[in-house]
Amino acid sequence: MTRSPSRRAARRGSRGRHRPFAAVTAVLAALAVLAACAGPPRNGSGISFALSDATPRAKGDIDSFTWGLYAEPPTLDYTVAFDYPQNMVLSNVCESLLRWTPKLTTEPGLARRASHPDPTTWVYDLREGVRFHNGGTMTADDVVFSLDRQRDPDNAAAWAQVFQNVTFIKKTGALQVTVKLKKPDSQFPQYMASAAGVVASKAGVQAAGKDYGTSGGLACTGPFELGTWHKGQSIELDRFDGYWGRKAKSGKAVFQFLPDASARTNALLSGEVDGSYLIPTESYAGLRGSGVGKLYFGEGLSTVNVSITNMKGPLGDLRVRRALSLALDRSGFVQVGLGGAGTPTGSLTTRAAWAGAPERTRKRAFEGLRPGSPDIARAKKLVKEAGATGKTLTVATSSIGQDVSLLATAVQAAGTRIGLDIRLKSIAPNAFTALFTDPGARVGIDMFPLTYYDSITDPLDLLTNFKTGAYLNFAGHSDQKYDDLVDRASAADDPRRRLEIEAEAHRRAARQLLWIPVAEWPTAVFLNKRITGAPTTISYLYYPWAADVGAAK
């Protein structure tokens, strides 16, 4: 994304549980066994799993359902909705000008129409008669106010960079808003389907003042309104009967905070909670065989990577980065680290991000990026040619989740096999978050596991991270030709032309290995036998998914 990196950092902030040193040693042995005896993979891993965009439709209404959440949102102010917990709740209460669908396409939201009269102008015609939870009716003034809050430097909005190309946002009719850009920007209208495009009541936000998002209502328009927030325990959402669209099938949705991964899994097995996203990977097998519900997988637009943070040492030589990529046992990591649900990849982006591209363009984008089995001999040769044999590198690890800890261990195993001295530095979950936001926290760290998801269905969401000076360009790499490609793609309104440019940029970025891609990771959702209807894709971040949840029978 081209937003604040704190959004990626906090996502990883409180997941998983502590794993002692003995467990890490055991994992090294497991990875070695997997590398030696893994049979032909299915879906690139050791097990078979199918992707869908939704669970079966609900057959009726229910009074309420309870959802497991791995952390309590610090606030529900839409301008700082940068993490899974905030967005998972907020997507059902606050709505945007456009809507991201379970199929990861975009459709009208609070704006019934978006028009583009010239390359730097977007006009949004609003729905009539949309009611806020606080009793008011949506007008163009509310939209201008809501979007301008994202641009206000005093708000420290997580989505501010989406608006950096905006000249003005003006009311041009009672139900019409016009946005003027400094230069063409193909990404801006797409982000209007994310939290960046949320509309709240001007009067409601101003009345709440500094307490907005932490107490009282949110003065939004969604199918649910904020009910009781039991600090440290749960958030309740109540069905909003004045909703302009399809009414929610449940009278209440209760989000229960369960930071411990084991406790969250046990709550699903016991029926204490009815469902959950962000299932701990170590729980996949147990939940699938439990008989109390079903584990579904959907497109996550997510890739698991090893981010390079220090180019002043051995990793400044591309041959060393290539050697590590060649030596990584991606299939072994998918089986152990991702619970078998994932696909090994040599690509920075997911294939689903290219859904709108012609087949020829997709082939060009992924040309030469198919991962093979570990090639230790070739990797050793590259390390030797670079004069890096025996050199020390440090990779950060954390107990956030086994996708982090086991990937760090896999990197260590790969480096050891090709003559590098890879050392693990264990970092507490909260401190691990700082790796994304604080350069000082990355001192002494050469690499760390990084999971990235797209917030729009466009490869450019990820590719902008490798521009000179980009927030997530931790390695400080600069390539003027690459920067030009990203700028050209951003300015291209025609999707087919834009994707052609992005294909070239994708291949160029992949060759540099500033992130070493490891796997595509699907979204997981578990539902017990009482409920159904939730989407399986990562659309739940911005789509009112809880409104679709109802009775399974």
Molecular shape: globular
Rg, Å, rounded: 23 Å
Unreliable runs: 1-47
Span between termini:
40 Å
The CATH homologous superfamily of the domain at 302-523 corresponds to: Dipeptide-binding Protein, Domain 3
CATH topology name of the domain at 302-523, in short, is Dipeptide-binding Protein, domain 3
If helices are DSSP runs of H or I spanning 4 or more residues, what is the number of helices? 17
Approximately how much beta-strand content do the residues carry?
15-25%
Per DSSP E runs of 2 or more residues, the count of β-strands stands at 21
Task: Let me know the largest β-sheet.
Answer: 9 strands, mixed
Task: Classify the secondary structure makeup into a structural class.
Answer: alpha+beta
Name given to the CATH architecture of the domain at 302-523: Roll
Share of helix among residues? 25-40%
Which class of the domain at 302-523 in CATH terms?
Answer: Alpha Beta
Task: Indicate the mean pLDDT.
Answer: 90
